[in-house]
Design brief:
This protein is mainly α and 146 residues long. It is 69% helix and 0% strand. The chain is built from 9 helices and no strands. Bound molecules: protoporphyrin IX containing FE.
């Protein structure tokens, strides 16, 4: 299992670096930079908040505007950094951030579904979509607890 996760992590990294490193612009630039990523995160968080399968996890987050703003900023920084942008993610590591929440594999899939729907709405190119999903996929092992 651990080996599988490591291989997935490497594949995600390779997908990003091969694309970002080979004279082509970074995924960050290709999707439209920080402004576009901020719009994606706003839409994504809106979809998660409306998704009855998983919005129970975000009850406290959604009801506290300062907490919600910080959560969104962390997501923007994380995606910006993961796609080769000039941001630094300063939030918790994924294992610490989700410890004790009891997130299941189905919960994780629902969230990824909401993200894909968001990326499709913004017409993010397949190549960029796959690079981003390839970077987030390997985090599953740190987030899912059951
Ligand atoms: C690849 C998938 C995921 C990524 C990249 C991700 C990313 C993050 C980040 C960056 C934070 C903020 C950490 C901090 O406060 O320092 C966070 C917190 C959180 N995540 Fe996730 N997450 C993922 C999956 C999930 C899933 C599947 C759920 C539940 C269905 C979930 C529920 C939460 C909750 C409830 C918080 C706390 C929000 C708050 O601070 O109020 N996450 N996540």
């Amino acid at each position: 299992m651990r080996k599988h996760i490591t291989v997935m992590a490497l594949m995600g990294l390779m997908a990003l670096t091969s694309y970002a490193g080979s004279n082509s612009p970074t995924v960050y630039k290709s999707v439209g930079g920080k402004k576009a990523i901020t719009a994606v995160v706003d839409e994504f968080v809106g979809r998660v908040a409306a998704d009855n399968r998983i919005n129970g996890f975000f009850k406290d987050t959604a009801s506290d505007p300062a907490r919600l703003a910080k959560f969104k900023k962390n997501l923007v920084d994380q995606i910006c950094q993961a796609t080769g942008g000039p941001c630094k993610y300063t939030g918790k590591d994924m294992k610490t951030a989700h410890a004790g929440m009891g997130i299941s594999s189905n919960d994780f899939s629902a969230l990824v579904e909401d993200l894909v729907a968001t990326l499709d709405k913004f017409h993010v190119k397949d190549q960029d979509k796959n690079a981003l999903l390839g970077a987030l996929g390997p985090m599953k092992g740190d987030i899912v607890e059951k």
